[in-house]
Design goal:
The chain has about 110 residues and is an alpha+beta fold. The protein has one domain: 2-Layer Sandwich (GMP Synthetase, Chain A, domain 3), CATH 3.30.300. It is built from four helices and three strands, in the order H-E-E-H-H-E-H. The chain has a three-stranded mixed sheet with strand order 1-2-3.
Length: about 110
């Protein structure tokens, strides 16, 4: 049975992370970043965030390095913005979901 509280918290975290990403001043975190998927553990102690960039997988990998170095700041901001019992540890993972979708769209358009 899925936990509705976990799903609600995951959506709140996704919304706040998008806002935090726009305000980061790290030069590695540039361009259009998108959160493809967010996996929040049942107890809320860990959160895997899959990041994709319109500039390609290399830009996403570079952004993940910047986000990993800012993980403490991001965790503090999430804790201040949301009232949760435990603020999760964040693990950022590069994903090429947007690039893959754009390739499929281009192939379908060419047909």
């Amino acid at each position: 049975m899925p936990s509705y509280k976990t799903a609600r918290n995951a959506e709140d975290i996704r919304r706040e992370l998008s806002d935090i990403f726009r305000g980061l001043k790290d030069p590695r975190v540039t361009g259009m970043l998108s959160i493809v998927k967010l996996d929040l553990s049942g107890d809320g102690s860990w959160c895997k965030v899959y990041i994709s960039s319109l500039d390609g997988i290399e830009a996403a990998k570079n952004a993940v390095k910047g986000l990993t170095s800012a993980a403490g700041f991001i965790r503090r901001e999430i804790g201040a913005r949301l009232s949760m019992r435990h603020t999760p540890q964040f693990v950022f993972i590069a994903d090429d979901g947007i690039e893959h979708s754009a390739d499929i769209n281009r192939i379908l358009r060419d047909l």
